[in-house]
Amino acid sequence: MNGAEVSIEVRGLVSYYGTRKVLKGIDLSVLDGEIMVIMGGSGSGKSTLLNHLLGLLSPAEGSVRLLGRDLARLTPMEMLDLRRHIGVAFQSGALFSSLSVAENIMLPLREHSDLDRKTMEIIARLKLEVVSLAGFGDLMPAELSGGMIKRAALARAIVMDPKLLFCDEPSAGLDPVVSSSIDELILRLRDAMGMTTVVVTHDLDSAFKIADRICVLDDGEIIALGSKDEIRASSNERVQNLLNRRSEEVTLDTDAYLRRLLGES
Ligand SMILES: Nc1ncnc2c1ncn2[C@@H]1O[C@H](COP(=O)(O)OP(=O)(O)OP(=O)(O)O)[C@@H](O)[C@H]1O
């Protein structure tokens, strides 16, 4: 691995909430064009790490470098400039409810570019096509399904053709079929645009479908980092516990579960 291939480099990252240490020395490199999935149980530190990658939190110790720039050393202007190369799709979609879908998608263009209105509309329309939402631009977010909101959020995240894409729980709250279609979209976007992509998820099926490499967090530490096969073969008991939780979920008899919910058995 040579330096030029690394898009994101985290070194010795330590983070606290008050006196509580929640990241305990994270070392992580994400290579150009790879999809890195950050996985881990609830409270393991995934969101905190993501917030550091986005420059929303400052490290107590260590550093975060995006595209070769140490976030702690950037002036506000340099940070703004770097943000042009970063797309973020938040868990909830984070669309503005008072703006149409197309207006939402144009927001980063309005913030970061001098393009005229017509050009922005054309770009928004193209991005809506990319995420299979062609023709939905005039709708309001409240008129979209959960899966469509995630697609719209992805369209907004990629509207500036970013070098880095961050997705926070892209499949949260979706049924398995819709969730799988979002996974496919993330793969397709990376293949088409070559972005370095970081996905935070607790959804194991999704993680194993999209990841080039997986980083498993537990109690603020990386307990496994590697390819899907390497993670599956991990001898770490906590990693295996996380993977086995999935088998229990998968083997759940959904019909029996539904009958139980409906009081039929
Ligand atoms: N604003 C906060 N103030 C204090 N403690 C916090 C705050 N946010 C998170 N924590 C704590 O930090 C630890 C890591 O939380 P974090 O949200 O990063 O985990 P997570 O892996 O993203 O969890 P989840 O999957 O439930 O979102 C947890 O113990 C959490 O309780």
Automatic annotation (TrEMBL):
Pfam families reported for this sequence: ABC_tran (PF00005)
Keyword Nuclease appears in the UniProt entry: no
PROSITE patterns, sorted: ABC_TRANSPORTER_1, ABC_TRANSPORTER_2
GO MF entry, a single one: ATP binding
Residue intervals of the ABC transporter domain: 8-244
Alphabetized UniProt keyword annotations: ATP-binding, Nucleotide-binding, Transport
Signal peptide: none
PANTHER family, sorted: PROTEIN TRIGALACTOSYLDIACYLGLYCEROL 3, CHLOROPLASTIC
Name this polypeptide is given: ABC transporter ATP-binding protein
Species annotation: Telmatospirillum siberiense
Classification lineage: Bacteria, Pseudomonadati, Pseudomonadota, Alphaproteobacteria, Rhodospirillales
